[in-house]
Design goal:
27% helix, globular, ten-stranded mixed β-sheet, alpha/beta
Length: 207
């Protein structure tokens, strides 16, 4: 049975953040708000938790396209190959914000992702998500619980999310109503930026 914990984005309660982070550290799955749709996440260093998310999503872990939720760009070199100045300028311009950037993966990636050529990096403009990652001390691996085929209310209403995911996760954070538009996905792994999915983020950042 998942706990439903109310956390306010304007001023996330450190005690509640700590409670969620302890669950992440112990291998629990957490649903949390971002600046787009609600995300399902776990600690990047916990292989068992990563396998759980892959099972829920019905994908093989090593082939899964999960995003790495980072607190800022300072951890980038842990997971991404050295990037050029133009790419870094785009990231600085866009983040934190409603974007997922696909970047070339480095050889320091966690073992389960070693074969991945690229990784998706997110720095959401949401104080709850950023507080979790800061307190955890490393990224959260995340996938949206957004249903791309249709707009269903449970993707935006935390109480309905809790009802649906009650037996699959440890905690659902109620951070208020979520958005029903996913992030804009931009591939920066080649020399020219490519828009993979137009979502909430404006494309002006790459122009």
């Amino acid at each position: 049975m998942a706990d439903l914990i109310r956390i306010y984005e304007e001023n996330p309660n450190p005690r509640e953040i700590e409670k969620v982070v302890n669950v992440l550290r112990s291998g629990g799955l957490v649903i949390y708000p971002t600046d787009t749709v609600y995300g399902l996440g776990c600690d990047i260093t916990n292989t068992k938790a990563l396998e759980k998310i892959a099972r829920i999503k019905g994908v093989k872990l090593e082939k899964a396209n999960f995003s790495f939720i980072c607190a800022d760009l300072s951890n980038l070199s842990d997971y991404v190959k050295q990037i050029d100045t133009a790419t870094f300028k785009i990231l600085k311009r866009a983040l934190p914000g409603p974007y997922t950037f696909i970047l070339p993966g480095s050889n320091k990636l966690p073992k389960v992702f070693k074969k991945k050529r690229t990784v998706g990096i997110r720095v959401p403009d949401n104080a709850i998500a950023l507080s979790l990652v800061q307190k955890l001390g490393n990224p959260i691996v995340s996938t949206s619980i957004y249903d791309e085929d249709e707009l269903i209310e449970y993707t935006t209403d935390p109480e309905l999310i809790h009802e649906k995911w009650d037996n699959l996760v440890s905690i659902v954070i109620d951070g208020g109503y979520g958005d029903n538009v996913a992030s804009t996905v931009i591939d920066l792994s080649e020399s020219t930026p490519t828009v993979v999915r137009q979502g909430k983020g404006s494309l002006d950042v790459i122009n």
